[in-house]
Specification:
Chain lengths: 391, 61
């Protein structure tokens, strides 16, 4: 094979070709995958197809990541502006937005009319919860951009998982406070996923509401104004969920509950693994040091990165939050033991998660536990265990 | 009217334009922007990190 390859390529002037260009259709396939599963279940009579999307996330992706491995390639600096200006990538992200509505509506229809029994009902609900999670990833990508159109589109896509406060919470809250004890969306060393979720979900809501209130107050408006961007997005959610309830009846309620809360879990678990234990140190002037690559956990696994719009290249994202997904780079950052799909499952089992992650956190700080973001309730126990009692 | 730029992402706060979405009407002076305000686009850098931009030659008197 190699003997037939042209050998002149090295001497030709090279323009950068993005090898992942056409692979960015993959998340769109995932976004409609619950619909594909429902259709396959209907045509084959096999109820198992309703579990197509959960199978994709929890089984197929970790295996695919293990087989295909990591992608250490970066676009060269000179190619980044061109990549960012290419409307093709933006268009693909926009195109996914209606698909999340399709998956949600088809899911609501299926559980209400297809007489699945609880196994099929649960499969479809969990499948839609995962596309709701992906809707949050898209809302995250678009919500970071600075045009009015993109901010609106983010509100629309975030309405599907009922998380309209995400843009306010994430852009003005999480990015400002990341990897500090002040951030409800940064998990602490020793904190289990279950403890974190109880702190993160209400904490994020509170911070978003507060920040929106401050923003509106500067405009001389009440927090209950029609200009409240949280309430605008929640209004769309109310119409969507209300219409489904009116149309399909109470049978759709468990679907709404499962797909919404498990979708939120998707976001919470992502947040949990993205900054576990990492801490920006305080500077002499009392401010926290600027967010640098070592304040986020990264995963360079190719397949899950293609499915998540490079979200796993999280360090570069926090260093340059407005950079588009296709241009995100891998840099010298602490590495997770696997891609997000695998790490989700690890995080569900706290002893397993801690056994794998605690040594990694310590390695980031050269073994100095006092530099770690520690869960306050476990502080003394953890300090004693790592030989710094009384610190 | 002066302009101030975020050293991280390049966002520019222009006093003459203000930033309506952030709640700063046109003409809001930089000194009236709260000290704990973070960059509207990236939120990685705070007000104190911003760099004052020199006016372009055409605009200078």
């Amino acid at each position: 094979m190699s003997s037939t390859m042209p050998t002149t390529s090295a001497s030709e002037p090279t323009t950068y070709r993005d090898s992942k260009r056409y692979w960015w259709w993959l998340p769109l396939f995932v976004a409609v995958s619950p619909t594909i599963g429902i259709w396959l279940a209907k045509t084959t009579g096999q109820i198992g197809w309703t579990w197509f999307t959960p199978f994709l996330w929890y089984v197929f992706l970790p295996i695919a990541d293990a087989l295909v491995g990591r992608d250490e390639s970066n676009p060269p600096d000179a190619a980044v502006p061109g990549l960012e200006a290419d409307g093709y990538y933006k268009a693909l992200a926009y195109l996914s937005v209606p698909l999340f509505y399709v998956s949600w509506i088809v899911g609501a229809w299926a559980v209400s009319t297809q007489h699945y029994g609880w196994i099929g009902y649960l499969g479809v609900s969990l499948g839609v919860s995962l596309t709701n999670g992906l809707a949050l990833v898209v809302g995250h990508e678009i919500g970071h951009k600075n045009t009015r159109f993109e901010k609106r589109l983010a509100q629309i896509v975030l309405a599907v998982p009922a998380y309209g406060h995400f843009s306010a919470e994430h852009n003005r809250g999480h990015h400002k406070d990341v990897a500090t004890p002040d951030d409800p969306a940064t998990s602490r060393f020793g904190e289990t996923l279950y403890e974190f979720v109880q702190r993160e979900i209400p904490g994020a809501m509170k911070r978003a509401w507060h920040d929106e209130k401050v923003r509106l107050a500067r405009q001389g408006r009440s927090v209950f104004s029609f200009k409240n961007e949280l309430l605008q997005s929640f209004a769309i959610t109310l119409v969507l969920y209300g219409a489904a309830l009116a149309f399909f009846g109470p049978i759709v309620i468990p679907f709404i509950v499962i797909s919404t809360f498990w979708g939120w879990q998707f976001l919470s678990t992502s947040n949990y693994i993205e900054h576990y234990g990492l801490l920006r140190q305080k500077l002499p002037d009392g401010r926290y040091e600027r967010c640098r690559p070592e304040h986020s956990w990264n995963a360079n696994h190719l397949i899950s990165n293609l499915m998540l719009y490079h979200l796993q290249r999280h360090s570069d994202h926090h260093a340059r939050p407005t950079r588009c997904y296709q241009a995100l780079r891998t840099d010298r950052a602490p590495e997770l033991p696997g891609g997000y799909p695998l790490c989700f499952t690890l995080a569900y089992f706290p002893p397993l998660w801690r056994a794998l992650m605690d040594p990694r956190v310590l390695a980031v700080y050269g073994g100095d536990i006092t530099k770690v973001n520690i869960q306050p309730s476990k502080r003394q126990k953890i300090l004693a265990r790592y030989g710094k009692a009384g610190a | 009217m002066a302009r101030y730029q975020c050293p991280g992402c390049g966002y520019v706060y222009d006093e003459s334009a203000g930033d309506e979405h952030e709640g700063f009407p046109p003409g809001t002076l930089w000194s009236k922007v709260p000290d704990d305000w973070a960059c509207a686009d990236c939120a990685v850098r705070d007000k104190v990190d911003f760099v004052k931009l020199e006016p372009p030659p055409a605009e200078s008197r």
